[in-house]
Every structure is written in C-alpha cells, then in structure tokens.
Amino acid sequence: MADAALFEFLHTEMVAELWAHHSDPGPGGQKMSLCVLEGMGFRVGQALGERLPQETLAFREELDVLKFLCKDLWVAVFQKQMDSLRTNHQGTYVLQDNSFPLLIRMASGLQYLEEAPKFLAFTCGLLRGALSTLGIKSLVTASVASLPTCKFQVVIQKT
After folding, report:
1. Which PANTHER family match (predicted)?
2. I want to staple 93 with a disulfide (CB 3.0 to 4.6 A). Which of 52, 69, 116, 154 is the partner?
C-alpha cells in the first residue's frame, strides 16, 4: 500500500512540476510537458522491461505480450490487473482500466476531465517503453470519456 501511495504522490508531483516550469499555458507549452512526461515513462518502461524474467522475453505473439502487460506489468505498477483487452487482430489493441489509480482522486467532478490527459502521458510512455524492450515498436495513446475509466490504445508499428 505504501508503494502505491508513494508512486501516486511522485507522479502527481512530476506532473505539477512540469506544468509549473513550462509557463506557456498554450498548446506549445502543454505539448512540451506531455512529451517530457511520456519520455520519462518510456525510460521507466524500458527499465521495467529489462528486469523481466527471461521467459517473459520469449513471447511469440503480440497478443501474449499485451496480455502480459495487462496482467503482470499492471499489477507490478498499480497493484491491480487491467480490466479488459480488445483487439482488431490487425495490430491495434485497446486496454481499458475502469478505475485507473492515477485518476481516482479526480473522479469527483467533471471539471477534472480536461485535466486527465496530463496524468496519462507517463503511463503511455511506460507501456511503449515496456513494449520496446520486448521488441515491439508501438504508438500508445490514452483517452478518458468518464473518470476514472481510461482506455489506452496501442498500435503496433510494423517494420
């Protein structure tokens, strides 16, 4: 429990600090902050991926890798499994968390919905970094229609 609270507080402070330092309230400043958060998440995801057991690195199918992320990696980071994983079997996956831990405190009001994207950039990078370590190049985006539910779309980039 202490680890989850520590991670949540650290994440909140990273977001607040980046928004404070990029004083440009326009799209340019916000985009820069989102890129920095996503980059931090990517490096953390790579590091997590490098610490995975060797048998994990031998996945043969993309779907198996995504299942691993939804179960094992999500539990390691958020102490819960992802709620659903859907695919179109053409390289696009949608991962849904109905009570995303980094959005739960914001779920009390609709006024926070527009603030949600800045709390998702780090996690998008985390997923992309872990996938990268497992040999999968991807594009990860997130969307929130209602708090605290979050959907992460993973598009596999074929090389």
Report:
1. TRAFFICKING PROTEIN PARTICLE COMPLEX SUBUNIT 6A, TRAFFICKING PROTEIN PARTICLE COMPLEX SUBUNIT 6B
2. 154
Residue 130 backbone dihedrals phi, psi, to 5 degrees:
-65, -40
Task: Report the alpha-carbon angle 129-53-72, nearest 5.
Answer: 65
Q: What is the DSSP letter of 135?
A: T
Which residues have C-beta within 8 Å of that of residue 109, sequence separation ≥ 6?
A: none
Tokens of 36: 């920095």
Provide the token pair at 62.
């993309």
- Return d(Cα 159, Cα 50) in angstroms, integer: 22
Single-letter residue type at 88: N
The whole-angstrom separation of Cα 126 and Cα 45 is 4
**pLDDT tens digit sequence for 48-88:** 888 876 666 667 788 988 998 999 889 988 999 999 999 99
Paired tokens of 96: 């849904």
